Amino acid sequence: MQTQFTSRFAFLMVTAGAAVGLGNIWAFPFVAGQSGGSGFIAIYLVALLVLAAPAMICELVLGRMGQASPPTALARVKVENTGKGPWSLFGWSGLAVNILVLSFYAVIAGQAAYFGYYAFSEGFSSMQPSAISALDNGFKINMNLSMLWTILFLGATLTIVSLNITKGIENAGRYLMPSLFVLLIGLALYSMSIGNAKAALNFLFGMDSFSLTTGVFMAAVGQAFFTLSVGICSLMMYGAYMGKDIHLPKAVSWIVLMDLMVAIIAGLVIFPLVFASDVTPDAGPGLIFMTLPLLFAKLPAGDAVATFFFLMLTVAALTSSISMMAPVVARLEEAGLRRITGAFIVAGIAFVLSFMTILSFGPMYDYYPLEMFEATAELNMFELLREGINNIYLPLGGLAFTLLVGWGVRKENLRRGFNIEEGPLFSILHWIIKYLTPFLLLVMIAGIWL
Ligand code: PHE
Ligand code: NA
Fold this sequence. Notes:
Elements: H1 8-19, H2 22-34, H3 38-66, H4 70-81, H5 88-121, H6 129-141, H7 143-162, H8 165-194, H9 197-205, H10 214-227, H11 234-241, H12 248-274, H13 287-298, H14 302-334, H15 339-361, H16 381-408, H17 411-418, H18 424-449
The structure holds phenylalanine and sodium ion.
């Protein structure tokens, strides 16, 4: 594999760009809202640090050591260390799940792009609050509109993936993170000044609203994996492009920190608005679309800021959707297809699958395919898809990667893969990866079945 990121900074920004996306700004607030706030956030923090981040290190190092598309890399790493094993299966299933994630991600990203277009062409400033909260539903029930914006977003993704890694992705990554931070912090301050900051802080961090159920627990773990993109070989691909000089644990620490900050700040933008309006915290996937325009309507030059914000959000989603498409395309390339052909195939399949989401937001809102089971009785197609992937598949994928790295890779090879010195940091990390993370994940996964 020839392609490489041009610098350490580029790798960091690109990988952070892949990690930071709709998961932080769209999913984190709505899932935290549905899960009752602070209890969810407490578990989320723990899961991020002891489960998802170690699994992220493992996934990246597998890509770095394997130097190929995920299924090929997984098989190669195992053979070079301790012999054969069925690990490439997790590469194949990961590729399939990437396309499934892309299928719902593109619909939400399309909606974000549409809101940017709406802010630009119509504007939120003269709208009544009731009309604003109706905008989300208006978009969702208009299936032609959803399809159109989904196609536009998939088209943008496939274009960038076809253009090849270094040029397209690095440039987006480099400018995105800094702009996003500045913008979000500004919006959070404004939101707290015009909204109900006290209720928001209490909901997110207070003890009054602290509650834990199995459902909240699973949602928090699933969100931790999703937000770091861990479990489906998307990061593994970037691990393969990473330069040799990068200290992997240090790089991952930075990425986790950035990802966490973006999510928390997004929460501080959304919840003061929620508690100062008729929108309830458990409003679901439309939460940010029902609340953010309320803020832009009051903000001076709000429509310009709104246009810029939704544009940034779309770009943040693009840098993530690229990371879902890239590994699949890389595998198709290994099979002899041209990059552009592969990208068209993946985008086409994702578009067909996107109907599960588009229909769930529209006419099939209350169609519950797994009505016969208690746990899934009230989940529509979109919810089954999203929750099944986040809460079940991603932790499983993470478990597979930590087991493979902890038990199937020679310690010395691993140390070189991480690019770190022999010493306490490496020993602790190795212990976490070999015992702690897989043990906790196994207990959790066993718990789901019992
Ligand atoms: N981590 C991305 C986000 O938070 C989503 C993602 C998941 C990207 C899985 C790639 C793979 O938006
Ligand atoms: Na994220």
